[in-house]
């Protein structure tokens, strides 16, 4: 097990070193600080010469950064759109956008509600629950989670921004994440190897299917507001279609990983309980477990994608547009292909993992008795 930890440590170190050679051109120079609302000084019911939008002037104490303790008046704009409008009350924590001039504070604007404390509490609750219930396994899961986050933010995203093929980057990094995660959880053994091979086979198939049917459907990759916002970044030549296909592949990875490890573990347990079990019976056992998992995991993927698109689905149900119009929308077609290719990748991983598990077990038996 020490060799596994050394391998993961060295791999993480290499990733961090490589990240230093993947520069990101964009830099946000805006000063963002925490603040606390003291009072509402006055309301601005309609635009004036000084204020272009209705809103209010809010007295706020800056509670972080080099201007901590200063009292400022912030302009809180009301656009009429509830998504953008921020309604505050005295004592509320907020985020401020500060503007400097010649090293001095020039103005402050209310940027958003401060939501970091509830998020931090939730993260701590998640970590404590994982460690208390999972103990050593839970701690190993945290290490694998940290590794995954490091890979995503220090390698995957910078490489895509630099113009590397998103699909190729995602497939390679999925293999690395899968390998490291399973090595941490189960160590290096035939069960882990079988699970890795089955998972990589399933996710690669999911990515290829997403690519084939996405190309056939002529998806642009610009079906969401976030993707359209990326179009305003002029510093990079982004492959939006490739990013869409990569997100489909990466989104399926977690579910496929669960299925692959479950089947490999089940076959290993069946063999350990009865070493006289034939290869056919082992494979059949793995498939039986896979069939039970198949329905629930497919539902998991479909429900996850439905949950993320719930407002859109409500709009479609509320306005009852033409089915022909809806089914041909870029966004809807993208989500359908995402859900179905992810589920297909999951289904394909089941027989692959069962076959690899059975083959590795009997390869080891043949090597043991026949050299």
Automatic annotation (TrEMBL):
The keyword ATP-binding does not apply. PANTHER family: MEMBRANE PROTEIN, MEMBRANE PROTEIN-RELATED. This is YibE/F family protein. Keywords: Membrane, Transmembrane, Transmembrane helix. The chain crosses the membrane at residues 117-134, 141-161, 167-185, 192-213, 238-257, 301-319, 339-362. The keyword Transmembrane applies.
């Amino acid at each position: 097990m020490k060799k596994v930890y050394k391998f993961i440590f060295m791999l993480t170190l290499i990733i961090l070193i490589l990240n230093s050679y993947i520069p990101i051109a964009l830099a946000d120079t805006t000063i963002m600080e925490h603040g606390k609302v003291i009072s509402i000084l006055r309301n601005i019911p309609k635009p004036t010469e000084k204020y272009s939008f209705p809103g209010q002037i809010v007295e706020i104490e800056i509670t972080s950064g080099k201007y901590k303790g200063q009292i400022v008046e912030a302009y809180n704009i009301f656009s009429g759109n509830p998504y953008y409008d921020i309604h505050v009350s005295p004592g509320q924590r907020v985020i401020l956008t500060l503007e400097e001039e010649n090293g001095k504070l020039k103005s402050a604007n209310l940027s958003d509600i401060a939501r970091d404390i509830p998020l931090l509490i939730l993260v701590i609750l998640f970590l404590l629950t994982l460690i208390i219930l999972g103990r050593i396994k839970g701690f190993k899961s945290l290490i694998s989670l940290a590794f995954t986050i490091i890979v995503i933010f220090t390698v995957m995203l910078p490489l895509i921004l630099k113009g590397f093929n998103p699909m190729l980057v995602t497939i390679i990094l999925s293999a690395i994440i899968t390998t490291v995660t399973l090595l941490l959880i189960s160590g290096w053994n035939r069960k882990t190897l079988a699970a890795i091979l089955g998972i990589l086979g399933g996710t690669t198939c999911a990515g290829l299917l997403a690519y084939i049917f996405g190309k056939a459907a002529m998806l642009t990759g610009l079906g969401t507001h976030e993707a359209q916002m990326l179009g305003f970044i002029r510093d990079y030549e982004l492959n939006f279609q490739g990013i869409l296909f990569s997100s489909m592949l990466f989104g399926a990875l977690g579910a496929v990983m669960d299925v692959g490890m479950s089947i490999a573990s089940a076959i290993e347990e069946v063999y350990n309980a009865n070493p006289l079990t034939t290869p056919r019976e082992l494979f059949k056992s793995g498939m039986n477990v896979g069939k039970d998992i198949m329905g629930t995991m497919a539902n998991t993927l479909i429900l996850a994608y439905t949950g993320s698109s719930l407002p859109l689905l409500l709009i479609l149900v509320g306005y009852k547009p033409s089915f022909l119009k809806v089914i041909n929308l870029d966004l809807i077609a993208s989500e359908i292909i995402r859900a179905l290719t992810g589920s297909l990748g999951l289904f394909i991983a089941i027989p692959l993992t069962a076959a690899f598990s059975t083959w590795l077990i009997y390869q080891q038996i043949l090597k043991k008795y026949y050299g």
